[in-house]
Write a structure and sequence with these properties.
mainly beta, 1 helix, 7-stranded parallel sheet, globular, 4% helix
Length: 196
């Protein structure tokens, strides 16, 4: 049990989870795989026997700055207030986030920012953010498909400053400010969403 990887870079970064309370920088080589096995992990807590929880109180919980990575079936929490999101997909990152439960007390559950930041986020529940659910800005893009984005203190999806996502088949509901907010030169394609 523990953390294994086909890349020593990914292994060394993931092994430092305990010292950074699950602030994970996914900088693995394009083909490498990092696996977090079930069981007690440093810097992680188990929600149940089948759920792994990544949680940060002070910083961003999961940060992507790589061209290829995939995470699935995780609970990702950011417990501190302020400017650190639960998930941050940075410039040049083309990652997949599949079937995760993402929540935060900070201003955003998910931030997608920077040129060529194009994640594929699908089957996730993005909820109870202290601010917005998803922010797409600074020429970020990507695909948000079949997600539940709900119960956030501000808008469910915020798009500004050249952000250009494709949002389809999402259920965007019960957000306090708006379901979808596109402003300040925001762009995007929005199809077959239920917004209420």
């Amino acid at each position: 049990e523990g953390i294994s990887s086909s890349s020593s870079t990914a292994s060394s970064m993931l092994s430092s989870l305990g010292s950074r309370t699950a602030s994970l920088a996914a900088r693995a080589a394009p083909i490498s795989t990092a696996r977090i096995n079930r069981g007690l992990q440093q810097g992680l807590k188990m929600l149940s026997r089948s759920k792994v929880v990544l949680r940060s109180e002070d910083g961003t919980t999961l940060r992507f700055n790589t061209n290829k990575a995939r995470v699935s079936h995780l609970v990702i929490e950011q417990g501190g207030e302020g400017q650190n999101p639960a998930v941050h997909v940075e410039r040049g990152s083309q990652v997949e986030i599949d079937s995760c439960d993402i929540t935060c007390k900070s201003y955003a559950c998910v931030v997608i920012s920077g040129e060529d930041a194009k994640p594929y986020i699908h089957g996730c529940r993005i909820h109870n953010g202290g601010g917005g659910g998803v922010y797409v800005l600074n020429s970020g893009g990507g695909d948000l498909v079949d997600n539940d984005i709900e119960l956030n203190a501000l808008a469910g999806v915020n798009v500004e400053a050249g952000g250009n996502p494709t949002v389809s088949r999402c259920r965007i509901s019960k957000n306090q400010a708006a379901g979808l907010l596109v402003y300040n030169y925001g762009l995007g394609v929005y199809t077959e969403n239920d917004i209420y």
